[in-house]
Amino acid sequence: MDWKRGAYPEFEIEDVVVVLFLLKTPKGRKQISEELNLGEGTVRTLLKKLSSIGLVESQQKGHSLSEKGAEVVKEISRLFSEPLEATPLDGFVTYALVVKNPPEFKSIELRDEAIRFFARGAMILVVQDNEIIFPEDRRPLKETLPKLSEDLKKLPIENGDLVIVTWADTKADALKSLIHVALTLKGELLPEEIKKLVE
């Protein structure tokens, strides 16, 4: 049995953020449960908590963001972008996002954070002169991974941004490890009501 699917309604801040992004389009509880590899009881608890602070509405067709929820997602998007599914790397599910105004960071530490959070691998890139490059040697990504480089152009990138790419066995692990790295950099700037959900 998958250890993550216990009867305990446990979720982490990463789950909360991923659910908020997912609910930009209405989704049913079962769908959220499958996409995030969380038990349905956990998803029920998480949705109930989001609903109690007015961020999520439930209708017949599923759960979606309320107006307030959409505002909160906009606020989060000023810190980092919504995850974008990219071309699989090494056959693994791959996602990427942009971190705006990143603080000082060490690529190796951020990669370790992603792997600690079940990613198979991670890439930390920066945007310079409108090019996505490897910070260590300033090599443009398009020279080694042209397809990924093309995908990442769909992200709202600007000079000075940090681009994080993670890949994992499942969509849930790829997404959560990606959000985890973004939160390592920007977590304390999340809206207070979101942080309170997991205290």
Automatic annotation (TrEMBL):
InterPro entries: DUF4443 (IPR029349), GAD-like_sf (IPR004115), PH0730-like_N (IPR054039), WH-like_DNA-bd_sf (IPR036388), WH_DNA-bd_sf (IPR036390). Pfam families: DUF4443, PH0730-like_N. GO terms for cellular component: cytoplasm. Keywords: ATP-binding, Ligase, Nucleotide-binding, Protein biosynthesis. One of its GO terms (biological process) is translation. It comes from Thermococcus aggregans. Residues 12-70 form the PH0730-like N-terminal domain. This is DUF4443 domain-containing protein. It comes from the Archaea. GO terms for molecular function: aminoacyl-tRNA ligase activity; ATP binding. Residues 94-185 form the DUF4443 domain.
